[in-house]
Amino acid sequence: MKLLHKDIEKDSAGQVTLMPEEAEDMWHTYNLLQVGDSLRASTIRKVTTESTTGSVGSSRVRTTLTLSVETIDFDSQACQLRVKGTNLEENQYVKMGAYHTIELELNRKFTLAKKSWDSVVLDRIEQACDATQKADVAAVVMQEGLANLVLVTPAMTLLRAKVEVTIPRKRRGSCTQHEKALERFYEAVMQAILRHISFDVVKCILVASPGFVKDQFITYLYKEAVRQDNKILLENRPKFMLVHSSSGHKYSLKEILSDPAVTSRLSDTKAAGEVKALEDFYKMLQHEPDRAFYGLAHVEKAADALAVDTLLISDNLFRHQEVPTRSRYVRLVDNVRDNGGNVRIFSSLHVSGEQLTQLCGVAAILRFPIADLSEAEEESSSDDD
User: Fold this and answer.
1) What is the pLDDT of residue 384?
2) Torsion sign, CA atoms 114, 118, 121, 126
C-alpha cells in the first residue's frame, strides 16, 4: 500500500489518499472502512443515453465518484472489496443521492474521509504501508493425496493452492500404481510451490505432515531440482523446514506455528508472535487464572487497575457498526498503551485470530493477579441483599 496524501486535522477529522498495490492491501482497506465514511474512487458506471430519434443505448464509462459508505463487502478468497453507497457529488453521469457500488482496484488510488481517525485506524495505515511487512512465511501442509499451500502474511492467512490426488492402496506383490500416483501428487505440489511462492520475499517455507510424507516429498523435490537444474529450488534449499503436523488440513497451521523450533526460526514474524501470545495466555489461564482475563468487561476493569501487561484483541471488533461500541474498544487499546502495556491486534483471518474470537475477541495477560471479578461481583451483590 502506498500513502499518497494525508490531511488530518487536530479534531481527528480529515482524509487520506492511498493506492493498493497487492491483494492483501484490500484486506487492510476493508479494516479502514466504516459505514458513514466518504470514499472517492474511480469506477465504471453503466450510462443509458437516448438519441434524437428516440432510440435508447447504453455504454460503460469510467468516472470518479464520492460515496457515503453504506455497505462493505469483502471476499477473503479473491481479495476483492466492493463498497456500496449514495453519491455525494453530482456529475454528468450520476445524480446526487443515486446508489452505486465501487469495486476498488489495484494500482488505482482512492481517497477516504472520516469524521474521526482513531489510533487503531492510523496504526493500520502504518502497518499496510510498511514495505517490510510482507508474506515472509509459506507453508505446505500435507498428507498422502492432500496438500494445502498457504502464505502467512502479517495480516492474513491466504490459501494459495489445494492439491488433491487419489492414491490407490499398495497391493500385495505390486506397488507401481501407488508409487505412480504418489509421484503425480509430489509433482503437482512442486508445481504449486514454483507458481505461488515468491522466493525473493519468503524467508521460510514450512513443509508439514504426519509420518514420513514430508520427508519423501522433500527427497523428491531436491532430486527433481537437480535433474531439471532448477536454480530457484537449489538456491533456496536452506529456506525449507520440515515440521510434524497431525494432518494435511489448513487448521493444522496453528499447531505448526506454535512448534518451538518454528517459533525460534520465525521470531521476527507477526503471525508467530500472535501464536506465542495466545499460547502464553492459555498457559497463564491454566497455571495462574487470576492473571488471565477474557471478555470485554473483565479486561476493561483490569486495564483500569493498570494491571494489563499484554492485550490480545481481534481486528473484527474494530469493524463494529455502532460507533460507541467501536470507541470502547479503541479506548481500551489506548488505555493499555498509555500505561506501558503491549497490544497485539490479531487478524481474524489467521488461525490464532479465529481462536481468539472464541474468547469474545479480547483477552489479557496481567502484570499481577486480581481476584476473579465475577466472584467479586457476586459477593458485592450478596452484600447488597
Assistant:
1) 46
2) positive
Query: Residue 173 gets which letter from DSSP?
Result: T
325-328: list long-range contacts, CB under 8 Å, 24+ apart.
326/34, 327/118, 328/296, 328/300
Question: What residue type is assigned to position 300 of the chain?
Answer: E
Radius of gyration of the chain (CA): 26
How far lies 98's CA from each of 90, 95, 298, in Å? 9, 6, 45
Query: In 3D, which of 149, 194, 201, 142 has the Cα closest to residue 167?
Result: 142
CB 41 within 8 A of CB 110: yes
Q: Is residue 168 over pLDDT 90?
A: no
Give yes or no for a contact between 350 and 271, defined as CB atoms under 8 angstroms apart.
Answer: yes
- What is the DSSP code string of 262-303? HHHHTTT-HHHHHHHHHHHHHHHHHH-GGGEEESHHHHHHHH
Interatomic CA distance for residues 101 and 294, integer angstroms: 38
Q: What is the DSSP letter of 55?
A: -
pLDDT tens sequence across 115-160: 999 999 998 898 888 755 565 789 999 999 999 999 887 667 888 8
**Helix-strand-coil split of the chain, %, nearest 5:** 40, 30, 30
Please state, in angstroms and rounded to a whole number, the distance separating the CA atoms of residues 67 and 359: 36
pLDDT per residue as tens digits for the range 15-71: 999 999 887 789 899 999 999 999 999 999 888 777 777 777 788 899 999 999 999
Helix 213-228 and helix 176-196, axial crossing angle in degrees, nearest 10: 70
d(CA 188, CA 240): 17
